[in-house]
Amino acid sequence: MTAQSSPPLTLEAARDLQRLLRAEIGPGLSEREVNTVETRFGFTFSADHRVFLASGLPNGSRRWPGWRNGDPEDLAERLSQPVEGVLFDVERELAAG
User: Fold this and answer.
1) What are phi and psi of 58, to 5 degrees?
2) Per-domain residue ranges of the chain
3) Residue 4: which residues within 8 A CB-CB, separation 6 or more?
């Protein structure tokens, strides 16, 4: 049995999701802005995440990264947290070994 992929996120579906959030939604990121973030921080958003950010940018809350006007150091720290968490878990497992 093979896994089926879900259909790509549409702008309409992304806006429906954003209406469920408890955050102010501002204008979405342009393709150029998304590309700038990716280049600056060395990663690539998934296709669905690109659509989500193009449809509107959650802001006004610590829960959501300020991709357009956020502090670059804060954004870099947020992006490093998952990696740091994985490294911590690996080190702990190796020590328990």
Assistant:
1) -60, 135
2) 11-71
3) none
Amino acid at 50: R
Q: How far apart, in whole angstroms, are the C-alpha atoms of residue 45 and residue 94?
A: 31
- Residues across the chain: 97
Question: Is 62 exposed, middle or buried, given 0-12, 13-18 or 19+ CB atoms closer than 10 A?
Answer: exposed
**What predicted TM-score, i.e. pTM, was given to this entire model?**
0.77
Q: Where are the alpha helices (DSSP H) in 1-97?
A: 11-19, 31-41, 47-55, 72-96
Local confidence pLDDT in tens for the 97 residues of the chain: 456 678 899 999 999 999 999 889 999 999 999 999 999 999 999 999 999 999 999 986 688 899 999 999 999 999 998 887 888 888 888 888 7
- Which tokens in the block code for residue 7? 């259909």
Query: How far apart are the C-alpha atoms of 86 and 92, rounded to whole Å?
Result: 10
